[in-house]
Amino acid sequence: MTAPTRKTAPVNIADKLAQFSDLWSQRTIAALNDYEVKVAKVHGEFVWHEHEDTDELFLVVSGRLTIQLRDGDVVLGPGEIYVVPKGVEHCPKADEETAILLLEPKGTLNTGSAGGPLTLAAVPLD
Amino acid sequence: MTAPTRKTAPVNIADKLAQFSDLWSQRTIAALNDYEVKVAKVHGEFVWHEHEDTDELFLVVSGRLTIQLRDGDVVLGPGEIYVVPKGVEHCPKADEETAILLLEPKGTLNTGSAGGPLTLAAVPLD
Asked: Which intervals hold domain Cupin type-2 (chains A, B) (predicted)?
């Protein structure tokens, strides 16, 4: 194959998810202005945290994600979206391995203002 | 049903798409900061246009979308993403009815700087 003059291949979400298996580690798959599209595999419970400066969009690709909020749970299946508003505490959990797509400004940390040992910067995928 | 104190229902993309049938008309289904998540049904060819101030993200939900660029086509199937860079002319087309999800800043017009009779503001869905 010769290199195209412009990157004209689409990004296949399933192909990107097949490139890694570690949990709760966000991979960047596309950029939109100063936002990043990321994917992650999750299973079990994350940590309660909030993002002080930004909303956070979750889209479930496969599996089932519960976004625990202080006043109730949001349960998302494949093809479902939820936007956690800026400053709202949340704790994602999944009883089965679940693949999610996330959208938020570049540099947003997975644990928000909570920090702690699960904090990881997003890693680009080829 | 009683009204929840917080909107805790996820947004189901397929349910939103089932609420309308007109082509090339964007419906807003979620907001993320000053960005909008929109869905549309497309069939046939749109118009060549560009967005001078923003990238534009396309995600195909069902069907097949060709994003014509001046130096080649990008063909997207379900679960595939392409981001048209700011200022790059493009013309979407679909040989079959195709459902897409779009993401861009609020107020971005579908025809960008081209204008013309197909120009429509996005309409919110309930």
From this structure: 43-101
